[in-house]
Design brief:
Chain A is an alpha+beta fold. Helix content of chain A is 26%, strand content 24%. Chain A has two domains: 166 residues, CofE-like (60s Ribosomal Protein L30, Chain: A, 2-Layer Sandwich), CATH 3.30.1330; 69 residues, CofE-like fold. In chain A, helix 1 crosses helix 5 and helix 3 crosses helix 4. The N and C termini of chain A lie far apart (44 Å).
């Protein structure tokens, strides 16, 4: 039997507001559409609904921009209050050029605008990334277990750009229940030679697989990846973070 | 009905040799395992078997390293003949540090070692990327159409590293039959605001989805992605190439 798996979008999740129970919304929506959660499912959840439920929203009117934010904003034609929020969410500016602000977030992710996003939130409000996406993922996993008695894996995902290639891809920014990297180091190839430097970012590949049914308009903010065996682990997303000292592009 | 799709590994493809008909091998293998190709399938094909079939193999014994290749090799502890091949496959060195050689290939892809790879080929031989992966994809698509009377899309894929994140992901280096980018620009979000800067690299997400069943040991060098509607296009992979003038990391 060839290996095969399925990806199923989860429709019918209502607009999420601060304090909502995202795990219950997902469980209800999967039941309502006739695809209830089964053991071993990976649930890939767009960051935005997690951030909204956790109240990670900031009204621009409540932000007083610093001098450096105002200076950067004037150079790039952007709202200085938005730049202020991006800088507060960052521990390091990686590149600032051509109207683009790429920073390293407090979690260690490198992305445009520290993941701060104005889409699919109220006008004059922005959404931040979850404060601790691995903790968010663990909490969702536990609540889903208590609601369904099913053991699942969780990915909190966001779409990031990357150097050298056009287009965003969905990647994992938090996860629970499986190992995000898969190593082939030490295994032998068809010529009997040990494979070197072969570690796959399965968490990011899962996030990308899910994105293909999720869409950007928040109508399908969750997808189920079903039927793929993963390595259980409690290590969270940290193995995906490259040590800045080993990074040639930071 | 929620959107859903399936990914199916294609097992039982024999060791590929120069001159082999990869399209026929794939058609035969999909039939033999009981998952014959249907219209609309995306076939994601690992670069290695395409390179082998096209004879894109070089014996190290046949290579005389240049002075610069010898110099780079002595600084990194690598085989000067391998470095020579990497430089011949490159039009630009992007980074050379910490034992890593990242170059821009003649196609425009930025990756480690110009995609030159020693795994799963005979000892003392290396495999190059296909000379024109879009042409390879078009040819495979046409042959599959003539063998099956089915219209499919093709991705030639390889696993590349990326800055900032650990682990490789599978990406498209050549394709035929669909648009590699999906743009949401101009569509309205839930607050009625037009989305900006939202273009998804669906070709790379498809390659990543396929990798999850392909594995690195060449036992499953092909996967079918089935049930996902794509936008027909003849533009090939070029839209995935970022213009170096717009790239902050080159």
């Amino acid at each position: 039997m060839p290996p095969r798996y399925e990806v199923i979008g989860v429709d019918g999740i209502p607009e999420v507001r601060p304090g909502d129970d995202v795990a219950r919304l997902i469980v209800d929506a999967t039941r309502a559409q006739g695809t209830p959660i089964v053991a071993g499912d990976v649930l890939v959840i767009g960051q935005k609904i997690v951030s909204k439920a956790e109240g990670r929203l900031v009204r621009l009117a409540d932000v007083a921009p610093s001098a450096i934010a105002t200076s950067i904003a004037s150079g790039t034609g952007r709202d200085p209050r938005l730049v202020e929020i991006i800088l507060r969410e960052s521990r390091r500016v990686v590149r600032m050029d051509k109207g683009v602000l790429i920073t390293e977030t407090h979690h260690g992710w490198v992305c445009a605008n520290a993941g701060v996003d104005q889409s699919n939130v109220d006008v004059d409000t922005v959404a931040l990334l979850p404060a601790d996406p691995d903790a968010s993922a663990r909490g969702l996993r536990e609540t889903i277990r208590s609601l369904t008695a099913r053991e699942v894996a969780i990915i909190i995902a966001d779409t990031f750009g990357r150097p050298w290639r056009e287009g965003l891809t969905n990647v994992a920014i938090g996860l629970a229940g499986f190992a995000p990297l898969k190593s082939y180091i030490g295994e032998l190839d068809s010529a009997g030679r040990p494979l070197s430097a072969t570690i796959l970012a399965v968490a990011d590949e899962l996030a990308s697989a899910a994105e293909l049914v999720m869409g950007k308009l928040d109508r399908i903010p969750v997808a189920i990846v079903r039927g793929l065996p993963l390595t259980p682990s409690e290590e969270g997303s940290k193995p995906l973070l490259r040590d800045p000292a080993r990074d040639l592009f930071r």
